[in-house]
Request: fold
Amino acid sequence: MSFISHLINGISLGSVYAIIALGYTMVYGIAKMLNFAHGDVIMIGAYVVFTSMTGMGLNPILSILLSMVVCTVLGVVIERIAYKPLRNAASPLAVLITAIGISYLLQNVALLLFGAGAKTFTNVVTFPSISLAGGKLTITGVTIVTILACIVIMVGLSLFVGKTKPGRAMQAVSEDRGAAQLMGVNVNGTIALTFAIGSALAAIAGVLLCSAYPSLTPYTGAMPGIKAFVAAVFGGIGSIPGAMIGGILLGIIELLSKAYISSQVADAIVFAVLIVVLLIKPTGLFGKNIQEKV
Amino acid sequence: MTVMKNTIKNMKKSTKSNLITYGMVIVAYIIVQIFSTTGNLSSMMQGLLVPLCIYVIAAVSLNLVVGFSGELSLGHAGFMCIGAYVSAFFSSCVGDALPGPLRFLFAILIGAAVAGIFGILIGIPVLRLRGDYLAIVTLAFGEIIKNLMNVLYIGIDGSGLHIQASDGGALVLDAGGKVIVNGALGITGTPKDSTFTIGVIIILITLFIVQNLVNSRSGRAIMAIRDNRIAAESIGINITKYKLMAFSISAALAGVAGVLYSHNLATLTVKKFDYNTSIMILVFVVLGGIGNIRGSIIAAVILTALPELLRGLSDYRMLIYAIVLVAMMLFNWAPAAISWRERMKEKIAERRKHQTKEAA
Reply:
């Protein structure tokens, strides 16, 4: 029974990784940049929910919506000020370092506003736990909500990208930015939209992450951010189902190795699995293999 | 005198540039020494001198991979970690059996050798990948090294070494045995052998190695691979060999930076060698100019000193650091900023022309 409970917890953690990884993978697919500040947007989102609930007494749904709006605006503003001017820079590393700078900036703004001490996050999910198999197996409400949210987001995003006009514009920009522009796609608008969606998802991920692990500091977003990045690469960066599967697998591997091997080397095992996968399949599980032409 | 002038004139451009870099380091060293002997150097600055050397070495070595080999590595701190741990372990074991300078020399060589070997071991699989995938795998290796060091326990007693992963409490040692590597608590009591002078000497050696490599046949092969892998392969350059060469030399030099680090502080833990440190070194390289060794040195010095100099601003210092970083990146790299700078340059030049005309 404990194996199943670890497995379910793993899927739940993995769902959070998957939601974060979607933000990474969409931005990478379309803007061809690694947005290192993504993890810190999660942290900001969680702080917004925290202050609006405990400070202003808003109800959970409203605070989550508020947090999504704040994160969306934040994501778009960051893109506009820091990343857009560097879109045609001589080296792709320039925008990467700028993203790192933004990551430091967000962490330190949070440090100044909220202090370094860990805030205890109140669980926003009031969903009851479910007991199965005569009380041997308990699934918490957070777990259920996280997994459901992940499925809903996955389906919604797939439909959005595949069926709507802005979604297809995203596909076009990700395939060939220049050609898309010639076909009349608003490239800047599409990239901004991608950042907006990614950041809104980050807000949701932040709430779910902090509901499951209720300790909030300015550095809360950093490690899940890296793990989600790993998940995105694991599944093949740029691919939406890849990010989903990658995230969930990563969560399962992490929790199972924590439970059965050692909690201290769990991260090392996660990264080792990533390396093995990339060595066998160098573009990740669902990545497209692009043939180079001379 | 004229002979000297002629030799300078006839020097290759690269040689001249190399000499300027050495000269810059030596001049900086002399200035610091003058300040230090006249007592004008605050204790805070004095404490900063060895870390400055460490980060300069790390930045120059990373530039070899990022700038000249064209691969993004996010795990440089991992190699520093290996160099630091191996050398601290060596120094703790040897203790006073060897005289200080000799022990430190061996520590440096061992740190460099082991980090270099790890560079080869990690490089063989990693260099098969490209671009961002390579970056993430180097990041993963860095984290794995950090994680494993965190659970490593090594003790020594009459019957030899005891190595164990997981829990130090269970290390069974004879009476008189001592724990050297104590898991997350790291290594304590490493002799404080690192000095500013040694640091500067190592910087010069590092520069000598990197600059000579870059200007050698091998260095040109490495850059040819960076510029066009397929073309380089088609003219018979062994891609794996040269990439591995750059990667392992860079790792070995990072290991030396780690040796300096571990012999500068009494307590060595892995916390310092996380991904943030790798990123910080990468920031030095990119901000200083990718492939520009002198730039790496200057950026490493400024950015290491900046947070300390801003310490008076206490809480705001990292915020200002972040803003400065983003602003500098935008100013240096944004195409719009570059063309604006060029326009301003032209304007100033024109104004000067007018002024000289009027004066005439």
